[in-house]
């Protein structure tokens, strides 16, 4: 069984290390185990769970519902159809309220450019 560091898992899934820690700390995708120095290690199942979490979050499904999907208390279809925060625009695409005209939420995989430039006042 191959184990991945949190950095390797970040590169594989496209999620930031911070996002993976967030999901791990909330028990949504816990680390498979820790190495001798206490660093988190993840297996292929954790990578698959993170892919599912990312997809469900992109669809606007909240974390308590995602937790229920991962626990197999509800199906993905049930989670999507019972979410009261979903609306249909005239285009027929499913979006969350207030997101019209915006692209789906994605976790950033690269650092944004610095706002300050040499010689600027801030």
From TrEMBL:
Superkingdom field: Bacteria
One Pfam family in the UniProt entry: MerR_1
Location of region: Disordered: 77-122
Keywords of the record: DNA-binding
PROSITE patterns: HTH_MERR_2
Gene3D superfamilies reported for this sequence: 1.10.1660.10
Residue ranges of domain HTH merR-type in the record: 3-72
SUPFAM superfamilies in the record: Putative DNA-binding domain
CDD domains in alphabetical order: HTH_MerR-like
Ranges of compositional bias, category Low complexity: 77-96, 110-122
Matches recorded under PANTHER family: HTH MERR-TYPE DOMAIN-CONTAINING PROTEIN, REDOX-CYCLING DRUG-SENSING TRANSCRIPTIONAL ACTIVATOR SOXR
Protein name: HTH merR-type domain-containing protein
Organism for this UniProt entry: Cryptosporangium japonicum
Classification of source organism: Bacteria, Bacillati, Actinomycetota, Actinomycetes, Cryptosporangiales
């Amino acid at each position: 069984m191959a184990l991945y560091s949190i950095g390797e898992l970040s590169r594989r899934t496209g999620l930031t290390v911070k996002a993976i820690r967030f999901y791990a700390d909330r028990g949504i995708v816990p680390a498979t185990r820790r190495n001798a120095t206490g660093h988190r290690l993840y297996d292929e199942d954790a990578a698959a769970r993170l892919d599912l979490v990312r997809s469900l979050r992109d669809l606007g499904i909240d974390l308590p519902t995602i937790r229920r999907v991962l626990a197999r208390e509800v199906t993905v279809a049930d989670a999507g159809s019972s979410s009261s925060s979903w609306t249909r625009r005239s285009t027929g695409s499913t979006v969350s309220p207030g997101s019209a005209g915006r692209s789906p939420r994605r976790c950033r995989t690269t650092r944004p450019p610095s706002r300050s430039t040499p010689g600027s006042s801030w």
